[in-house]
Design goal:
It contains nine helices and five strands. The protein is elongated, with a radius of gyration of 20 Å. It has helices spanning 2-7, 25-35, 54-66, 102-117, 138-144, 157-170, 177-186, 191-207, 214-224; strands at residues 43-47, 71-76, 89-95, 122-127, 148-151. The protein folds into two domains: 22-151, 3-Layer(aba) Sandwich (Rossmann fold), CATH 3.40.50.300; 155-224, Helicase, Ruva Protein, domain 3 (Orthogonal Bundle), CATH 1.10.8. It is α/β, with parallel strands linked by helices. A five-stranded parallel β-sheet has the order 2-3-4-1-5, with helices on one face. Helices cover 47% and strands 12% of the residues.
Length: 225
C-alpha cells in the first residue's frame, strides 16, 4: 500500500499560478507586480507557521526567473558556495532564515548591504516569525525589516477543502466535502501532503473499481500509515 504514494505523480512544481492565496492575496499580487517590474521594491521578508506556503512562494519566484533564463538561487536554511557567485544574479531566496549559523548571518549581512548599494537582485527571505522576533544578529534583523514584510497566513479548513475539490475536478472526479473533512482530521494537514493523498485515493479507487467514500479513504490511510 505504501508503494501507492511512491508511484503517484507529485503535485505540480511550485508556481505563483498554483499557489492557493486564501488571505494572502495582497502578498501574491505584490510579488507578481515585482516580477513584472511594476514595483521597485527589491527586498521582501515573509513569515508564518510551517505549512503556510512560504517555501512554495520562494521556490515559485526562483523558478519564475529560471524559466526566463535568468540566474536565481534558492537556499533552504543555509548558504552554500553559490551564494558568493553574485554576478548577474536576478534573484536570491533564503528560506528559514532563522536556521542560518553565525558565519552565514555575517555573509548575508554583507550581501544585503551590497545589494542595497548597487545591483538589481531581488532578495526574498522567509522566517517563522516577524523580523523583530528573530534570534539572529541584530544588524541583520534590522536589515530584514527594512523592506516589505508580510505574514503568510495558513489556509483555513474551508479554503483547504475548496482547494482539494478544485484539484479533484482537474483530475476528472468529484470529492465530497465530508471526505475532505475526514482527510483533514486523519492525515497531515499541509496542502502538498493532502494533494498527494487525493492522488493516491483517486488511483486506489480506480485499481479496486470502487467509488470514493469515507470507508475507502479510511482503508487507504490505514494501509499507508
Amino acid at each position: 500500500m505504501k508503494q501507492l504514494l511512491l508511484d503517484i505523480r507529485l503535485p505540480a512544481l511550485p508556481s505563483l499560478t498554483n499557489f492557493v492565496p486564501g488571505r494572502n492575496l495582497e502578498l501574491l499580487q505584490m510579488l507578481k507586480r515585482i516580477l513584472q517590474a511594476q514595483e521597485k521594491e527589491r527586498f521582501v521578508y515573509i513569515w508564518g507557521k510551517i505549512g503556510c506556503g512560504k517555501s512554495h512562494l520562494l521556490q515559485a519566484v526562483v523558478d519564475f526567473f529560471i524559466q526566463r533564463q535568468c540566474s536565481a538561487w534558492y537556499f533552504p536554511g543555509e548558504i552554500t558556495q553559490e551564494f558568493r557567485s553574485t554576478n548577474d544574479l536576478r534573484c536570491v531566496a533564503i528560506d528559514d532564515v532563522e536556521q542560518l549559523d553565525e558565519a552565514a548571518q555575517i555573509e548575508m549581512f554583507g550581501f544585503y548591504n551590497q545589494l542595497r548599494n548597487d545591483g538589481n537582485t531581488f532578495l526574498l527571505v522567509s522566517g517563522s516569525v516577524a523580523p523583530s522576533q528573530l534570534k539572529l544578529r541584530q544588524d541583520l534583523v534590522t536589515r530584514l525589516g527594512w523592506g516589505l514584510v508580510y505574514q503568510v497566513h495558513e489556509l483555513t479548513e474551508e479554503e483547504k477543502i475548496q482547494a482539494l475539490q478544485n484539484y479533484a475536478i482537474e483530475r476528472g472526479f468529484n470529492l465530497k466535502t465530508e471526505i475532505c473533512e475526514y482527510l483533514l482530521r486523519h492525515s497531515q494537514r499541509d496542502l502538498p501532503s493532502l494533494l498527494m493523498t487525493v492522488d493516491a485515493l483517486d488511483r486506489y479507487s480506480l485499481i479496486h473499481q470502487r467509488q470514493i467514500t469515507i470507508p475507502l479513504l479510511r482503508e487507504l490511510l490505514q494501509g499507508i500509515s
